[in-house]
Design goal:
With about 400 residues, the chain is α/β, with parallel strands linked by helices. The chain is built from twelve helices and 23 strands. The termini are far apart. The structure holds MU-OXO-diiron (FEO).
């Protein structure tokens, strides 16, 4: 495959992976992903920025040969995770003169994870520059979006910014440039939800920094290149901002229909008051959809049955996921039903201890909802409506 030129001897040499169905063995991928790698040809030196996911290494190396890349001077590792560094061991054999350029944190990671010899690595610091002749690479440390070792590489003369995982999308494409479509926005939001949301404050910080730098294009490590950086920066400003939307997300698991009945009743009451709701069957629905809904939700209502004196494992899984994603929600509560006992509310509340939310009085019943249950659900709806007004 012939490398596509982005601008002035800067080329795209990444690959689509349309077959990949799940990322991190956790979140389903709707259309696979891409692993982006960039080739920068300066007048004196050649650099590769990020490399390739190991199962795609063969194709990646073959493409380098087909594009007659006989020599590489520098390989920039913006982040140690193997979807971007997986081909480093083969690359340093293929290009014996190549030096891996990265930060100290990432150096430690690639030495531990990929057994890269120390003498092949050059450590750079924040704001440091590397000359390729008529092109300069400048490095900005960006810990927290999403690993502590993350950095951005700025191609100074061309005003192109490689943002690593930040601002990316699990999105495959034939044209390398973003079309700013709703479909891309959906993928980028899902990606933000799954990978970046736990680091929301850092996303705020780097969104602002990237805006101030004002690059002509943003070159992320997944998904297409943004010729219009405003498209993705505006979205990140909204998603990572502190303001939640008028949305209640209700993930639930219901063994005999009691929890589902209560969730439906509450959602109907909220809808009637003009509040948007999103019910999510934890057992059958896509976890990525739940993560996406959490980006905007002001209130989370977790519905759970009890199994063997404990929350149903699916509810525990959802609580654990909500906890690690740590969304911006302001309020949370629990609706549960049990057969013969156990501590549902206490255990689920403990599992969501990261959340900085006000806890609305939970409802826990034995078996099916009765008249007084519906009264409690009416009170819960009234409280949520007041909080959202
Ligand atoms: Fe795309 Fe954090 O790796």
């Amino acid at each position: 495959m012939k490398f596509r030129e982005i601008k002035n001897n800067v080329f795209y040499c990444g690959l689509n992976d349309r077959e990949r169905k799940i990322f991190d063995e956790l979140i389903p991928l709707e259309q696979g992903t891409s692993y982006n790698s960039y080739l920068v040809k300066g007048s004196e030196k050649i650099a590769l920025i990020d490399t390739m996911y190991p199962p795609k290494s063969g194709e990646y190396l073959k493409n380098l040969d087909e594009n007659n890349i006989a020599k590489v001077d520098y390989i920039i590792a913006n982040h140690g995770e193997q979807d971007h560094t997986g081909t480093l061991p083969e690359l340093i054999k293929k290009y014996p003169e190549a030096v891996i350029v990265t930060n100290q944190f990432c150096k430690n990671n690639i030495m531990e994870m990929l057994l890269i010899p120390e003498d092949r690595i050059q450590v750079i610091k924040n704001d440091e520059e590397l000359s390729l002749g008529d092109k300069t690479l400048k490095f900005f440390m960006a810990p927290g979006v999403h690993w502590p070792d993350t950095m951005f590489t700025y191609i100074v003369e061309d005003n192109l910014l490689c943002t690593c995982d930040f601002l990316g999308a699990h999105y495959t494409f034939d044209d390398i440039f973003a079309d700013d479509s709703k479909e891309l926005e959906h993928s980028a939001k899902r990606y933000y939800a799954e990978i970046m949301m736990p680091f929301r404050k850092m996303c705020q910080k780097y969104t602002k920094q990237v805006r101030e730098l004002n690059p002509e294009m943003i070159l992320p490590s997944h998904g297409p290149i943004y010729k219009n950086p405003k498209f993705i920066l505006d979205l990140y400003e909204d998603w990572s901002g502190d303001e939640a939307k008028n949305l209640v997300v209700l993930p639930y698991v219901s063994m005999y229909g009691s929890v589902e009945q209560m969730i439906n009743y509450l959602a109907d009451k909220l809808n009637a008051a003009g509040i948007q709701t999103l019910k999510h069957d934890i057992v059958s629905d896509d976890l990525g959809d739940l993560a996406m809904a959490l980006v905007d939700a002001k209130t989370i209502v977790l519905g759970a049955s009890m199994v063997l004196c404990s929350p149903h494992p699916a509810a525990a899984n959802a609580a654990y996921l909500v906890n690690i994603l740590n969304p911006k929600a302001k309020y949370a509560t629990i609706i549960g039903s049990y057969g013969w006992g156990g501590d549902l509310v206490g255990k689920l509340t403990n599992m969501m201890s990261n959340l900085k939310v006000e806890l609305i009085e939970p409802i826990l019943i034995k078996g099916k909802a009765k008249e007084d249950t519906f009264q409690k659900l009416d009170e819960m709806a009234k409280t949520i409506i007041e909080k959202h007004s």
